[in-house]
Amino acid sequence: MKRRVTYGVANYAELVRKNGYFVDKTEYLAKLELIENPVFLRPRRFGKSLLCSMQEYYYGLKYASQFERLFGHTWIGQHPTENRNQFVVVSFDFSCIRLGANVAEIELSFNQHCNACLRYIQREYSPWLDEMPPLIMADHASANLDMLLHALKAYNLPPLYIIIDEYDNFTNQLITAHHDQLYYELTADHSFLKTFFKTLKEGRKTGLIANVFITGVLPITIDDLASGFNIANIITLDPRFEQMLGFTQAEVTALLDQIYTDYKIDPTTRPTVETVIKNEYNGYHFLNTNGESLYNSTILMYFLEKLCAYGTIPEYLTDLNLKTDLSWVKRITGSTPTNTEEFVDQLVTENLISYNKNYLISKFNMSTFFQKDFFPISFYYLGMLTKASDFEMRLPNLNMRGIFMEYFNELHQLDVSTKYAEMMQSFLDKPDLPKLFADYWRLYISQLPEAIFQKVNENFYLTTFYSLCSQYLSQWFVWNVERSYPQGKSDLEFVGKYHERHAALRYVIEFKYYSKLEFKKFKTTLESFQLQAEDTAQIAGYVQGLQLEYPEARISQFVIYCVGHQGFRIFEIKN
C-alpha cells in the first residue's frame, strides 16, 4: 500500500492509521526517560506536538493493547522500556488557551481547557479511575489536579505522566503584544499559573506524577515560573537531544528514497529537488556549528506533500503558516525603530550578526527580550536565526531570507508590487539576464534611500535581486544561493524547473562589489571597466562541476560588478 505524506498531522495514531511517512525518532523516548522533568524548546512547526502525541500513546495504560500496531515498526517497538504503557497520561495543549482583557478571563480559559483534559482522562481511563470522585468543572484546574493526585494515592492507582505542549503559547502573545502588566500578574507568586505548576512540583515530589514533559518556544516563562517549578530540566542545548526534532540529511535521503519509489517520480528530477529543499528548509544549527545542520521537518513535509500530489516542484515554497513569523519580527523589534532598521539591514546586507553565547543560557526574562543585544538570541529561539559560529548568527535558509527581505522592503517603503510584471514577462518570453538585471537596477535599486548605500555589498545585491525574481518567476525557476562545488560556492544560480518551458536553462552568476573608493584603484570608468581574469577563472570552476552534474543543461555564466550605487557592468563569459 502506498504511503502518504501526512502534512499537518500531529496525532501519532492518526499518522499510523493513515500509513503516513514517518521518520523514526522513537529512540529519544528511551533517552528522555533518563531526564527528570525535561523542558524542550524548539521553533514553531518543528514537530513538537507529534513528539508529545507519540509519548501519550507510548506511555498510556489505555493503549497497551495497540502497542504492536502503533510501535511495532519503530525502534522503541523493538526496544521497549519498562515504562511502556504504565501511566495515566494527561496531555495539555496551552495553545488552546484564549487571551482576555484581564487575568480573570485568561484564568477562566485556562481552567476550562485543563479541566476538560482532566475530565477526558477520567472518562478514558475509567477502568482505573472509577473510584475517583467527579471533577468540579467550575473549580480551579490546580484544585482538580490535586484531587486527582489524592485519588491516585488513596486507591493505589498508577501514577500520572504529564505532557504540556506549547507551554508558553499564550504568555508569548502577551509578551510580544507588550501587555507587561498582564504577564507579570500571570507569573506572580500567587497567580493561578504558578499555583498550577506548584501542584505539578508537589506531584513529582510524592511520586504521584512519574514525569512532566514540557515543550515550548521561548525560555522566558519557565524562567519566570522558576520558584513554582524549579525542578525543570531544560534540555534545549543538550547535545543528546539536538536531533530529536528536525530531520538530518540521512533521514531526508531515506525519506526521498521511499517517496520516489512509491510515487514513481522521474529519478532525473531528484538532484534538483534535493537542492531546492536544502536551500529552503535546511540550515539549522542549534548547538555545534561544525555538526550536521537540520531541516525544518514540518515545512519540508509541506513541500513533499505537493511533490507527491503533482510530481513537480510546487510554485510556492513557503508554507503560508510560516508568514506569521514576520509578525514576530515586527513585534520584537518594533518598539525601537532605529534598532529595527539596523538589525534587519544587517541581516539583508551581511547575513551575519554578532551574539553573546552566554545569553543563550543566562536567565531570560521579558525585559531583556526586547533589548537590541538580545535580538539574535530571541530570533534563535524563534527559529529565524541559527548559529554560524560561536560569535555570529545567520539566517538559516532561503525561506527565512524571504521573510526578512519582505520586512526590509516594508521598512524602507520599497515598491515590490505589479510594476515589475512587464520586466518579468519580457524575461520569460526571451530570457536575457543583462536586461533583467538592468530593469531590477532601474526599478528597484533606484528607490533605495541614500543611507542604504553606506551598507551595501555583493550579498546585498545578490539577495535583493534573487528575492525580487523569486516573487515573480517561481512558477518557472528555482534558485541556488551559495551552492557548494569542489572549487568553492557559486553566488546565485537560476535553474529552470524540469517540467516548465525553460527546463534546460541554467544561469551561474558571480557578484562582485566595489565601493566608490575601491573602484578608483582600477583608474578607469565603469563603462570602460573590463572583466577580471581571476573572476573568469573562479566562475569557470563552478561551471565545470555543474556541467559534470547536469550534462544536458544549457549553462550560461555571468559576472556582475556593482559599484556603490553608481551602476553596474555585466559580462557574459562565452565558452
Low-confidence stretches: none
The name CATH uses for the topology of the domain at 24-241 is: Rossmann fold
Question: Within the largest sheet, what's the order of strands?
Answer: 2-3-4-1-5
The fraction of residues in strands falls at: 5-15%
The CATH first-level class of the domain at 24-241 comes to Alpha Beta
Largest sheet: 5 strands, parallel
Mean pLDDT across the residues is 92
- Strands, total number: 15
The CATH architecture of the domain at 24-241 can be given as 3-Layer(aba) Sandwich
Q: Given the helix and strand composition, which structural class is it?
A: alpha/beta
Determine Rg (CA atoms, Å): 27 Å
Q: How would you describe the overall organization of this protein?
A:
The chain has 575 residues and is an alpha/beta fold. Among the domains are: 24-241, Rossmann fold (3-Layer(aba) Sandwich); 431-575, 3-Layer(aba) Sandwich (Trna Endonuclease, Chain: A, domain 1), CATH 3.40.1350. The protein contains 25 helices and 15 strands. The chain has helices at 12-17, 27-32, 48-59, 67-71, 75-78, 103-124, 126-129, 141-154, 169-176, 180-186, 192-206, 220-224, 249-262, 270-281, 297-310, 325-333, 337-349, 366-369, 375-381, 398-411, 421-429, 433-443, 458-473, 516-519, 533-549; strands at 38-41, 88-93, 160-165, 209-216, 233-234, 353-354, 386-387, 392-394, 477-481, 484-485, 488-489, 492-496, 505-514, 554-563, 567-573. The strands form four sheets. It has a five-stranded parallel beta sheet. Strands 9-12-13-14-15 form a five-stranded mixed beta sheet, sandwiched between helices. Helix 16 packs across helix 20 and helix 17 crosses helix 20 (398-411). The longest helix is centred in the first third of the chain and has 22 residues, at 103-124. The two termini are 50 Å apart. The relative contact order is 0.08. The mean pLDDT is 92.
